[in-house]
Amino acid sequence: MSLPTARPARGLTVALAVRQDIHRYGLEGMLHSLEEIASIFSHPAIADAVEAAPGTLPDLLLTSTAELDETTDPSVARYLRDHGVRLVVLIGPDERMTSAWASQVHGFVDRSALHLSLLRDAVVDVSAGRFHVSASLARRLLVPADPGPAVALTAREVQVLELVAGGLSNKQAARSLGISENGVKRLMGNILAKLNSPNRTLAVVRALEIGLLAKPAAVGPAHV
After folding, report:
1. How many other C-beta atoms can be found within 10 angstroms of the C-beta atom of residue 75?
2. pTM, 2 dp
3. Is the confidence at residue 77, as pLDDT, over 60?
């Protein structure tokens, strides 16, 4: 668990509950960029977020459908709601959750189109008491699916992924792009979260499958 990061201005306290370390790291980076948030607690599971700070629960809990399987007690969701904690869930294409959990959610964010403004919209809406559904997610539910790729990467994220597909390490990619190694790590965290992939290799495979990357002439081993 990481310690909360305080900010000078008063704002929201957010708990992040995501199992995969690299996904959690990428989401932390996005949350740290939002001025509406005063402090962030990071946990690998929802139960940890509840048990870690009795009596000082966060204003908002951000998690994903991967954490809301049959092993996660739905009574935890009711407990959070009864204590005024608003629940926001990242949901990807074709992902589902149990009705017990879905009935407690205050907002859904489209993970396949995740970017900073999308996350900010969800935080602002939910903290103001409005139910939030990402526009891209609403369109996917109401309109026949577009055969094109649903995931949207920034130009810089595509550059990083192309270098990773060529077998470069974080340090090598940073040198090639003229940015810091930590900058590459943050971008990779965003990429893994958007592609719902546990490591760099699978992220490259999925990006190739959905047409986000052209197949390299020779792909070296990605450094996981």
Report:
1. 9
2. 0.61
3. yes
